Amino acid sequence: MTLRFVIACLSGLLLAAPALAEKETCAVSLMVLGAGQDGGKPQIANPDDPAWTNPDLRRLATSLALVDTRGGGAAARWLFEATPDIKAQLQRLDERHPVAAAPGVDGIFLTHAHIGHYTGLALLGHESAGAEGVPVHALPRMAGFLRENGPWGQLVRYENIALNVMTAGEAVELAADLTVTPFLVPHRQEYSEVAGYSIAGPDRSVLFIPDIDSWADWDAKEIRIEDQIAAHDVALLDGTFFARGEIPGRDMSGFPHPFITVSVERFSPLPEEERQKVRFIHLNHTNPALDPDSPERAFIRAAGMDVADEGGEICL
């Protein structure tokens, strides 16, 4: 009996939870600019991916935009991650929340030095946007990596970006009622530490963890993901891979991400209102849950959770 068959059966037996995407208009919101893994979908050197010919199946690398329209003038806008898709993502943001300035970004919060999370900074340089002093918020190793390595160091020297070194656990105040707090996450740290974020608005808060090795690694540090979910209104969590066996011919047992099936099993005992906070993000191009009509997506929804809606907005 295959995993896909079991999922299909479960999806038919359980009542599917309603979609959790939010698109209501509000003064402070978090827009999902991308929900894919670092390479997006379709990914390079995958010519048979149907997403090449079907735009509905395409996904950009994971990124968020925090938007505050309360100032009476142009909206204040902050990005989470500077992805390889930053050009298309800023266009999406401009279409929804336009500003006169270009690139019109009041700051960028980075999680870590893997290609899908920071390499879009290159387009802020003089060869492209020619940005002036865009604040880039990063933890100490990440900031040092940018300062000491090209081409990122050139962005600093030419003052296209201005590094703001954060401290884990200390909030960055964007407004009196709008804060962003970084925290350390156990994940591959070849070039930098890895951050997650607690994003707190006037009324609601969002937990953002696009990459983590496993929930058990946090358990060992006496940090429980369930407590973090309880402390927030929405939890955007690592959903890179759906299940073991997803990539043919590769042993996935050591992959540094919690499979969605593992997360669903772990979170299933939570009350319904807690499970409905969970939205998986950062899905690899192989992840069958990217397809909203798949049995894998139905399985997630039947468990009371969902996948982050690319283009959706969460009111804060």
How are the SSEs ordered, and which strands pair?
Blueprint: H1 3-13, E1 28-34, E2 63-68, E3 76-80, H2 86-96, E4 107-109, H3 115-118, E5 134-138, H4 140-148, H5 152-157, E6 161-165, E7 172-175, E8 178-184, E9 195-200, E10 205-209, H6 215-220, H7 225-230, E11 234-238, H8 260-267, H9 272-275, E12 278-281, H10 295-302, E13 306-307, E14 313-315
End-to-end CA span: 44 Å
Q: Portion of residues in helices?
A: 10-25%
Uncertain residue ranges: 1-23
Helix-strand sequence: HEEEHEHEHHEEEEEHHEHHEHEE
Tell me the overall shape. Answer: globular
Q: Give the count of helical stretches.
A: 10
Largest sheet, described in full? 7 strands, mixed
CATH topology: Metallo-beta-lactamase, Chain A
Number of domains: 1
Count of individual beta strands: 14
Using only C-alpha atoms, the radius of gyration works out to 19 Å
What class do helices, strands and sheet pairing give? alpha/beta
> What's the pLDDT, averaged over the residues?
89
What do these coordinates show?
- The chain has about 325 residues and is α/β, with parallel strands linked by helices.
- The protein has a single domain (about 5-315), classed as Ribonuclease Z/Hydroxyacylglutathione hydrolase-like (Metallo-beta-lactamase, Chain A, 4-Layer Sandwich).
- Helices cover about 25% and strands about 20% of the residues.
- It is built from 10 helices and 14 strands.
- It has helices spanning about 5-15, 85-95, 115-120, 140-150, 150-155, 215-220, 225-230, 260-265, 270-275, 295-300; strands at about 30-35, 65-70, 75-80, 105-110, 135-140, 160-165, 170-175, 180-185, 195-200, 205-210, 235-240, 280, 305, 315.
- A 7-stranded mixed sheet has the order 6-5-4-3-2-1-14. The chain has a 7-stranded mixed sheet with strand order 7-8-9-10-11-12-13.
- A hairpin with a 7-residue loop joins strand 2 and strand 3 (about 75-80).
- Helix 1 crosses helix 10.
- It is globular, with a radius of gyration of 19 Å.
- The relative contact order is 0.18.
- Mean pLDDT is about 90; it is low at about 1-25.
